[in-house]
Write a structure and sequence with these properties.
This protein is an alpha/beta fold. The protein is 45% helix and 21% strand. It contains 21 helices and 22 strands. A hairpin with a 6-residue loop joins β9 (239-248) and β10 (255-262). α11 packs antiparallel against α12 and α12 packs across α17.
Length: 670
């Protein structure tokens, strides 16, 4: 629908001067109108957009009205197109017998008897137009709801945990006896073995299902109190489930959402551990001390396993969310960058655009921290001098810590080089310094130490035996108890107030250390400060400053043809727009197969810009096949931070989200 046509009046009055008179009256009232010569022209006008139609009774008399009736019946759910019908007799059923037929046929119709006063016509026209505007508002809300539903459905179908919504069924005494499946996700069938469960009752699918499951869900439905528990379902094959159930929707409709995971293997391991402990306790008294020691080791291993599984699951979820968020950020950053570079709008609007761009950059940094925790951010580890890096950052740390914090450096001499990413280590050190400052609200001492220690193999920290450069940040602040210290590296866990931090600092540092092959330790006690140590593997290569590459300015390219391949429409559209501004002729493809078909018919393509993870063929494989067709083609791979596996280090790559200057630099470097 064309926006500037959506509020016009369409006039169908083929006899006399009614059309010209009505158009003149509407024009004097500031309302746009268009005269239609016949019914097909009226229908064509409605299709292109209109606020209402002004039709005379004789224009409909003895005409084939089936097309009009068909259009009205097929109009969208938000639409109830308004008509004003000019009659020679009154619109009431008692004075105009045909009014009933027109009312049934047109639906949203107002009758106006001729001759009429212009004020009456204008009043009816404006009333019809107001009603049409409300319909447009309803359309916008429906479209927004549909978009939200599509996003929800994507997440719903992609999560690994089983999920279902059930409606409880009670007997006359109020006892829960069954439940009906309202909705399930694909993982539901994998975890339970029940397929096509929607619309069926649990008792019909599994007649022997234990009553205590119905009792638990019935309690949630009646009280509205969510519950988390672990239990076995013998009727489903003896599987164990970790379950979280909560009430959804109208409390009068006893519907429960159930999120669950299969933990059968973990429970078997726990049962095996308990059996081992029982056998150990059954040994004779001479082995009692050894049995106790072995039991303690098993408990530590079990706790380490649980923590490892917990962090691994959180890391996988975090990495997936951050990857999808990068795809969402790419068109946002690209569009804001375009508006900012063009300097469009008033001063206030330009400031708003700059603020939005800054917020997008902050969001990009947040994604980097999430990926650091998930151990999926792209690193460029080299041999670096940690002692020199700390000395270079002293002024920044002092200014960040404030005048009430005394900063002290303790850097050992003759330190070996560490195998690490300098930029990421700087970010980690700054985060640790800020945390230390916040832990000393009344001031104190911040001591940053760098030394070389030998470390035995440590399964808890996943460290191999060897030499490590230890970067420690110690404060004299309020400290942490053991329970807080154990949770400190979890993402979004924070002891700060609302608005004082995201809770990603320590989790990011922990993820960075693990990705580099090192580890992180926390030593703290309430009232005695905290020491956080970052253990980095040493490098056999001597530390040295690498020569910085030239800062490639974005050159305005005025020739060449580029092929952009991405299955995400918004990301593809943003990239295409950037390339066209840089002077390229651009072709688009939504998949690798589509791109190869275009290349076979379009030999003039100079540059291939492709996403990596796509349904079917990946971007890496596409580049190989494209070079087989055209060896001289230049190729640039665009990837999210979570997509590094399987990508050659020699392949030119640009990570999402990016601005036009980033794209231009990458193309200039090909």
């Amino acid at each position: 629908m064309i926006p500037h046509l959506s509020e016009r009046a369409l006039i169908l009055a083929p006899v006399g001067r009614d059309a010209e008179i009505a158009a003149s009256m509407l024009a004097e009232a500031g309302l746009r109108s268009q005269i239609c010569r016949d019914l097909p022209a009226l229908l064509n006008g409605i299709d292109h957009g209109a606020g209402f139609a002004l039709v005379t009774e004789e224009a409909l008399h003895n005409r084939d009205l089936h097309p009009l009736v068909g259009w009205l019946q097929d109009q969208p759910e938000w639409s109830d197109f308004p008509f004003i019908l000019l009659t020679r007799r009154g619109g009431g059923l008692e004075r105009n017998p045909s009014a009933s037929r027109y009312l049934e046929m047109l639906g949203n119709v107002n009758f106006l008897e001729r001759p009429f006063h212009p004020t009456t016509l204008i009043s009816l026209a404006r009333s019809a137009l107001r009603g049409r505007r409300r319909q447009y508002d309803a359309r916008a809300r429906l479209e927004e709801l549909h978009r939200g539903a599509e996003k929800y459905r994507t997440l719903f179908d992609s999560i690994e945990a089983g999920f279902c919504i059930i409606e409880m069924i009670f007997d006359e005494a109020g006892k829960p006896v069954d439940y009906l499946f309202i909705e399930t996700n694909p993982a539901f069938a994998r975890h339970t073995g029940l397929s096509d469960a929607v619309g069926k009752r649990m008792r019909s699918l599994v007649p022997e299902h234990e009553q205590h499951w119905f009792d638990i869900y019935g309690q949630v439905a009646c009280t509205g109190e969510a519950v988390r528990f672990e239990d076995a379902a013998d009727a489903l094959g003896g599987y164990w489930y970790d379950v979280y159930a909560f009430r959804v929707g109208d409390p009068r409709a006893p519907q429960i959402a159930v999120l669950f995971n299969d933990i059968t293997e973990r429970r078997r391991m726990e049962a095996a551990l308990r059996q081992s402990e029982e056998r150990l306790r059954a040994l004779n008294e001479t082995l009692e001390e050894r049995v106790q020691q072995r039991s303690h080791e098993l408990e530590l291993a079990q706790e380490a396993l649980r923590q490892s599984q917990k962090l691994e699951s959180m890391g996988q979820l975090t990495g997936g969310v951050a990857h999808d968020f990068n795809n969402l950020l790419t068109p946002i950053v690209g569009s804001l960058d375009l508006l900012h570079r063009r300097g469009l709008g008033t001063d206030r609007e330009r400031r708003l655009i700059e603020g939005a761009l800054q917020s997008a950059d902050r969001a990009k940094m947040l994604v980097q921290r999430l990926l650091a925790f998930a151990r999926r951010q792209p690193l460029q580890p080299t041999a670096i001098d940690i002692g020199g890096l700390v000395r270079d950052m002293r002024d920044l740390i002092v200014s960040t810590s404030g005048p009430r914090v005394q900063v002290e450096l303790a850097v050992a001499d003759d330190l070996p080089a560490a195998h690490a990413d300098a930029n990421q280590i700087e970010m980690a050190l700054l985060n640790l310094a800020v945390n230390a400052r916040d832990a000393m609200p009344d001031g104190g001492q911040l001591r940053i130490g760098v030394n070389c220690d030998s470390m035995a193999a440590d399964n808890r920290l996943h460290l191999r035996e060897g030499r490590y450069v230890r970067l420690s940040v110690a404060d004299t602040g309020i400290g942490m108890d053991q329970q807080t210290a154990e949770k400190a590296i979890e993402p979004f866990f924070t002891t700060k107030g609302v608005g004082q931090g995201t809770g990603l600092g320590l989790s990011m540092v922990h993820g960075l250390a693990a990705q580099l092959g090192g580890g992180l330790t926390i030593e703290s006690a309430v009232g005695h400060g905290t020491t956080i140590s970052l253990w980095l593997p040493t490098s056999e290569i001597e530390a040295g400053k690498e020569a910085a590459g030239p800062d490639i300015a974005p050159v305005k390219l005025d020739h060449g043809m580029a092929l952009v391949v991405d299955d995400e429409e918004l990301v593809r559209a943003s990239t295409v727009h950037m390339l066209r501004e840089l002077g390229y002729d651009v072709l688009e493809a939504s998949s690798a197969e589509h791109a190869l078909a275009i290349m076979r018919t379009e030999p003039g393509i100079d540059v291939l810009v492709t996403d990596h993870l796509m349904p079917g063929t990946t971007g890496t494989d596409l580049i190989e096949q494209a070079r087989a067709l055209k060896p001289e083609i230049r190729a640039l791979l665009i990837s999210g931070y979570a997509e590094n596996a399987g990508i050659s280090a020699e392949l030119p790559r640009l990570t999402k989200p990016f601005k036009q200057i980033d794209l231009a630099k990458s193309l200039a470097a090909l």
